[in-house]
Amino acid sequence: MKQTVVVYGSSTGTCESVAQAIAQKLGVQVIDVSALSEGVIQENDNLILGTSTWGAGEMQDDWYDGVNVLKKAGLAGKTVALFGCGDCESYGDTFCGGMHELYEAVTEAGAHVIGAVDASHYTYEDSESVIDGKFVGLALDEVNESDKTEERIDQWLSEIKPSL
After folding, report:
1. What is the residue-averaged pLDDT of the chain?
2. How many CB atoms lie within 10 A of CB 164?
């Protein structure tokens, strides 16, 4: 596996816990998006980016500065996988919508995005993060479906690891 880092934006700690679990399973570094720099991007071939979802499907607040760092550094030649945390019951109409904003930012910056997940295995009303029947990354709901998180992470990692 090439040099990989997990970067997360978390307000309540949920996305942070997920990021730490992913990083531990891969044996890689994990950092808060507030510590993201052009140097971190340049040092890593692969970026695994995670955000919680807020408001009307927006990414976590610290990611707005983080997206600027991504765009400034450029992601041509980089492989990016995304994960998002949401609440499919209380916010089923914007479930994991924050991933979509990250997806648009990284594709615009030239990244090769991997790790789309079949949306038919989820219960939700709507999500901007679904394109052609797949979430643009791993969608997780620690509020209502925490019992599915570890299995979903393991399945996703087994699918993306050959590309990392």
Report:
1. 95
2. 18
